[in-house]
């Protein structure tokens, strides 16, 4: 990807004698003892399967963390804006954009500060760590445009027409304080400390203008390649659209700012977050065969029920009664494969497993932080979600899951350079 600089590219640039700002930062990494030798870096790259020195550029037409290959860790947080001043809101977004660009570039810093009469400028837990492909994605909830019928910041006319708060779907047990929020921040990296550091520092900088409403960390295993597994033990992401298929991303993910799409959202998208609790104690008592029927895929390979290999495509048309793949299995309901109609609906999933310890009555509090990006929530996510939660024939998996939080967010385009910021188009 063009906004990605990794060690191999860095070594190439160094050989060619081209020292840009990112290159300077990478040399800083080496100077600060983060990478004592190339061999050491390459060894850790091999162990993790990822290059820990990878820096992703914050600036560009689209925000990062959407079509970026998924990192291993996430920390997601949602904020309520507490200020009533539009100037404060603009300052917050400007400050957060500048900080995000700097955190993603991991400006070399040794943790020292000249004026010790003030709290540390940066909390410091990232000192000595690698950039780990950090991406930061910022989105807005509908409450930023209008809350309780009030046009708080004069932005109501900027709200995309169909954009609402996430409704309650059949089976949801929504915890208000784990749902919605005016601004969401998604920090993803191959190091969990790097993700937490982002949210902590943005929260610190938001004092007086916004406060944290909810926060959720998540992760995948350290598998070097291939499809990851969710906490039901199934491969998750197999039939995701290809992020390198630009034409498809332009059709299903990115807005072009025409028609019903406001011009300020050209290069933006919508993000849906569902914090889905998984009843894993109950699931773990379900027979192996039954688990495959519920999901509609084979457990070891991830292949469809009528296929052999993971990426074989199922043929539901040849199985109208669902003898091979149950008609109420998760995959058959989420994509009934009705040709062009289901192609137009396809969403880009980018979720993570989460493990929060035990709930107050001793059950494992774990699940999937389901995240998806789509150009239209109304025409893509919602029809899929409604099929999965249709009370007349719900997804069989619904008996083992319960959504407790999340939200709908609109993700503005990227900031083009250091003079612009995320969400700037809202105020023009
Ligand atoms: C409304 C959207 C979806 C929610 C919510 C959701 C939750 C959820 N999914 C799994 C596990 C799997 N999902 C798989 C495929 C899949 N899921 C959705 C949508 C939602 N899932 C879609 C659109 C698809 C792709 C269907 C297709 O095109 O074939 C799979 C199969 C492998 C894969 O393709 O990823 C699994 C497994 C869990 C555990 C979960 C909530 C806890
Ligand atoms: Fe799914």
TrEMBL record:
<dbReference type="InterPro" id="IPR006313">
    <property type="entry name" value="EfeB/EfeN"/>
</dbReference>
<dbReference type="Pfam" id="PF20628">
    <property type="entry name" value="Dyp_perox_C"/>
</dbReference>
<keyword id="KW-0575">Peroxidase</keyword>
<dbReference type="GO" id="GO:0033212">
    <property type="term" value="P:iron import into cell"/>
</dbReference>
<dbReference type="GO" id="GO:0046872">
    <property type="term" value="F:metal ion binding"/>
</dbReference>
<dbReference type="GO" id="GO:0004601">
    <property type="term" value="F:peroxidase activity"/>
</dbReference>
<keyword id="KW-0408">Iron</keyword>
<feature type="domain" description="Dyp-type peroxidase N-terminal">
    <location>
        <begin position="63"/>
        <end position="218"/>
    </location>
</feature>
<comment type="function">
    <text>Involved in the recovery of exogenous heme iron. Extracts iron from heme while preserving the protoporphyrin ring intact.</text>
</comment>
<feature type="domain" description="Dyp-type peroxidase C-terminal">
    <location>
        <begin position="227"/>
        <end position="415"/>
    </location>
</feature>
<dbReference type="InterPro" id="IPR048327">
    <property type="entry name" value="Dyp_perox_N"/>
</dbReference>
<dbReference type="GO" id="GO:0005829">
    <property type="term" value="C:cytosol"/>
</dbReference>
<dbReference type="InterPro" id="IPR006311">
    <property type="entry name" value="TAT_signal"/>
</dbReference>
<dbReference type="GO" id="GO:0004325">
    <property type="term" value="F:ferrochelatase activity"/>
</dbReference>
<dbReference type="InterPro" id="IPR048328">
    <property type="entry name" value="Dyp_perox_C"/>
</dbReference>
<keyword id="KW-0479">Metal-binding</keyword>
<dbReference type="GO" id="GO:0020037">
    <property type="term" value="F:heme binding"/>
</dbReference>
<keyword id="KW-0560">Oxidoreductase</keyword>
<keyword id="KW-0349">Heme</keyword>
<keyword id="KW-0732">Signal</keyword>
<dbReference type="GO" id="GO:0030313">
    <property type="term" value="C:cell envelope"/>
</dbReference>
<keyword id="KW-0456">Lyase</keyword>
<protein>
    <recommendedName>
        <fullName>Deferrochelatase</fullName>
        <ecNumber>1.11.1.-</ecNumber>
    </recommendedName>
</protein>
<dbReference type="Pfam" id="PF04261">
    <property type="entry name" value="Dyp_perox_N"/>
</dbReference>
<dbReference type="InterPro" id="IPR006314">
    <property type="entry name" value="Dyp_peroxidase"/>
</dbReference>
<comment type="similarity">
    <text>Belongs to the DyP-type peroxidase family.</text>
</comment>
<dbReference type="InterPro" id="IPR011008">
    <property type="entry name" value="Dimeric_a/b-barrel"/>
</dbReference>
